Amino acid sequence: MSTEKTKATFKKINATDKMKVIMEQHFRELDEAAKTKSRKIAWCTSVGPAELLRAAGFLVFFPENHGAMLGSTRMATDLIPLANAIGYSPDICSYLTADIGSYLKGASPISKAYPGVSGPPRPDVLVYNTNQCRDVHDWFNFYGREFNVPVIGVQTHRGVGDIAKSHIDSISSQIKALVPALEEIAGKKLDYDELKRVVGLSRQCTDLWKEVLEIASNKPSPLTFFDGTIQMGPAVVLRGEQRAVDYYKELLAELKQRVKDGVAAIDGEKFRIYWEGMPIWGKLRELSTQFAELSTCVLASTYCSSWVFPALDPDDPFDSMARAYIELFIVRDEYYKERYFENQINKYKIDGVIFHDAKTCPNNSNNRYGMPERLNKKYDMPMLVIHGDLNDLRCYSEEQARTNIEAFIEQLAEKKGK
Q1: Residue 296 — very low, low, confident or very high, per pLDDT cuts 50/70/90?
Q2: Distance between CA 86 and CA 19 in Å, rounded?
Q3: What is the C-alpha to C-alpha distance for residues 39 and 321, in angstroms, rounded to an integer?
Q4: Alpha-carbon distance 104 to 407, whole Å?
Q5: Strands 271-276 vs 296-301: parallel, antiparallel or unpaired
């Protein structure tokens, strides 16, 4: 089977224009509230208790989203050394170091993208959940000291196999324990009916986002992993809001029409790839172009599925939030992860898997304990490990990655040609 290069063409997802509007609204609302003190602002980790914060009356800002923006705009590599210079190791999360560097320099992609917006809004409280990693606690503690505001949160179990009632009770009780502090900062009591409403909207958002991702199981796939890294924006920063639900209904309708019309994200799709690990934010365009030239569709990932929370239940908000946050892939043990990959390989009809070993993100680098070798042995399927980082491009060799990807696709072609 030929692996000759073709011209890369990219099909616009029309719904993206609406996404740009609602994302700008989000950042401008935060900026206005910070400047006028009209609303309290909470910073929240990406899979923290955002539903609780919205129900308590806070506008919510997500620093990890800002970290991804720093990576995709390639500002991160120049800003990370500023954080290193004040004692934050180059080996820890490069979202953290890029974000702190951005703060120290007073430079943000938010203000560049949205003229008049100052950048990240000053918080009234910082609320974390360590389910993604322990670094978020130290990250928020930096800003707690800088702004002299409370840092509160949830410490999550790690290496979880089967989820037990004790796990749920532990996380649920920690979320409930946040309520008095949030009420004091917000200056009002938590409205439990509002909490149920917000959790219900988050559930609708997550169900729609899951449908968006799973539509890639069609042959040919109507979207790519690289599309997903853009389209996930509302699921991350607007879950719990009606506008996120409305957006994903529109996006899903467009993608279903693509399937009906036989429109492929990658013309002449020959190979179907699963991307495991963090995006290399500053190189998404180059990578998407290379794969398109090789008629290869990278169409599914663990990363984009990190904001799928089927456990959310508006009738049981605290326990269901606890279960949703601890069911997260990154929290689970190797046995669970291996079964998860097997399910994804079968669901998306995968030809090969690429593992990104991100230097500063060990929790999202699942190649380090023999997983690729075990999957290769079970499926006789080619696996490739790319060494890089989510934000620090000094850790990534583009030339080496390009060469390895080309060799990987050649391997897929030889296997399919048998």
Answers
A1: very high
A2: 37
A3: 24
A4: 42
A5: parallel
pLDDT of 10: 87
Enumerate residues 6+ apart whose C-beta is below 8 A from 98: 67, 70, 71, 75, 76, 79, 80, 83, 391, 392
Give yes or no for residue 175 having a pLDDT over 50.
Answer: yes
Quote the crossing angle between the two packed helices 16-36 and 242-261, to the nearest 10°. Answer: 170
Lowest-pLDDT choice from 17-21, 130-134, 320-324, 367-371? 130-134
| pLDDT greater than 50 at residue 418 | no
Find the CATH number of the domain harbouring 248: 3.40.50.11900
Structural domain range at position 407? 195-416
For 224-255, give the DSSP string: -HHHHHHHTHHHHHSTTSHHHHHHHHHHHHHH
Angstrom CA distances, 78 to 53, 98, 106, 368, stand at 33, 8, 13, 28
Q: Does residue 1 form part of some domain? A: no
CA distance 393 to 390: 8
> Which of 322, 43, 51, 41 shows the shortest CA–CA distance to 197?
51
Structure tokens of 359? 């230097």
Mean of the pLDDT values across residues 301-316? 97
Is the pLDDT confidence value at 350 over 50? yes
Residues 107 and 241 both lie in one domain: no
pLDDT digits (tens, 9 = 90+) for 82-103: 999 999 999 999 999 999 999 9
Q: How many residues does the chain have?
A: 418
Q: Residue 84: which of 100, 64, 107 has the closest Cα?
A: 100
Q: Looking at residue 1, what is its pLDDT?
A: 47
Q: What is the mean pLDDT of the chain?
A: 96
Judge if 257 and 117 occupy the same domain.
no
> Which structure tokens are listed for 258?
């693509």
In whole angstroms, what is the distance from residue 61 CA to residue 140 CA?
Answer: 12
DSSP label of 355 = E
Strand order across the beta sheet in which 296-301 lies? 296-301, 271-276, 352-358, 383-388
The answer to whether residues 28 and 119 touch, using CB atoms and an 8 Å cutoff, is no
**Cα 266–396–355 angle (5° rounding)?**
55
Give just the sign of the alpha carbon dihedral 310, 162, 139, 281: negative
Amino acid at 227: D
Q: Which tokens sit at 270?
A: 């020959």
